[in-house]
């Protein structure tokens, strides 16, 4: 299956480099280029790519606001130069499926696009520990309990698997279902429990004692 990708970055040279790298993969097709957040949102809704590779700092609408606008429409992989906690935390709050730094090598970037296209999440190893610590501090203040009664038995199993850090392929193998079905269950769990991302879900599942 070919993964259709939209690249959003306000620097022409960076966009050209990303298009060259991603377009060089046999299973990736770059279907469009956006120069700012507003254009990225409009093009994503029109072209319906599988993944948007999104910069953070862009004119008119930044990448985090654009990611929020595309929540539920398309999976977004944030790719930025700036290793700043506010960007990481803000991007995942907005619903980004992944966060990488631009010093990531070409093969890792292509692999990240594949991971996000499968419906899994990905965070740059350079920021993972800080991110988990911040989520752990922030989440308990939101609510002490989750209403798990609204989940079906299968959704509870998927939620527990998220708490163990399992990827969609692992959940599919464990529960005997297709990866596409797992992706649907994950989306329903996030929506029913009001969770922002897989990372958020994993932390809340551990807090609930499901992992």
From TrEMBL:
Domain HTH luxR-type: 144-209
UniProt keyword Membrane present: no
SMART domains: HTH_LUXR, REC
InterPro entries found in the cross-reference section: CheY-like_superfamily (IPR011006), NreC/VraR/RcsB-like_REC (IPR058245), Sig_transdc_resp-reg_C-effctor (IPR016032), Sig_transdc_resp-reg_receiver (IPR001789), Tscrpt_reg_LuxR_C (IPR000792), WalR-like (IPR039420)
GO biological process: phosphorelay signal transduction system; regulation of DNA-templated transcription
Domain of life: Bacteria
SUPFAM superfamilies attached to this UniProt entry: C-terminal effector domain of the bipartite response regulators (SSF46894), CheY-like (SSF52172)
GO molecular function: DNA binding
Entry protein name: DNA-binding NarL/FixJ family response regulator
């Amino acid at each position: 299956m070919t993964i259709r990708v939209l690249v959003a970055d306000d620097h022409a040279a960076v966009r050209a480099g990303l298009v060259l790298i991603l377009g060089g993969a046999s299973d990736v097709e770059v279907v469009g280029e956006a120069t700012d957040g507003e254009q990225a949102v409009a093009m994503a809704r029109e072209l319906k790519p599988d993944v948007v590779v999104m910069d953070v700092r862009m004119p008119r609408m930044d990448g985090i606001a654009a990611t929020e606008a595309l929540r539920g429409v398309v999976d977004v992989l944030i790719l930025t130069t700036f290793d700043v906690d506010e960007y990481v935390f803000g991007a995942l709050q907005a619903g980004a499926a992944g966060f990488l730094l631009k010093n990531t090598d070409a093969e890792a970037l292509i692999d990240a696009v594949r991971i996000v296209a499968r419906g899994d999440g990905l965070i740059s190893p350079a920021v993972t520990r800080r991110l988990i610590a911040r989520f752990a501090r922030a989440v308990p203040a939101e609510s002490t309990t989750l209403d798990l009664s609204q989940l079906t038995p299968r959704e509870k199993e998927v939620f527990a698997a998220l708490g163990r850090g399992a990827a969609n392929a692992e959940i599919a193998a464990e529960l005997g279902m297709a990866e596409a079905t797992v992706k649907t269950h994950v989306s329903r769990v996030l929506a029913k429990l009001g969770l922002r991302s897989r990372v958020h879900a994993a932390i809340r599942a551990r807090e609930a004692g499901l992992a």
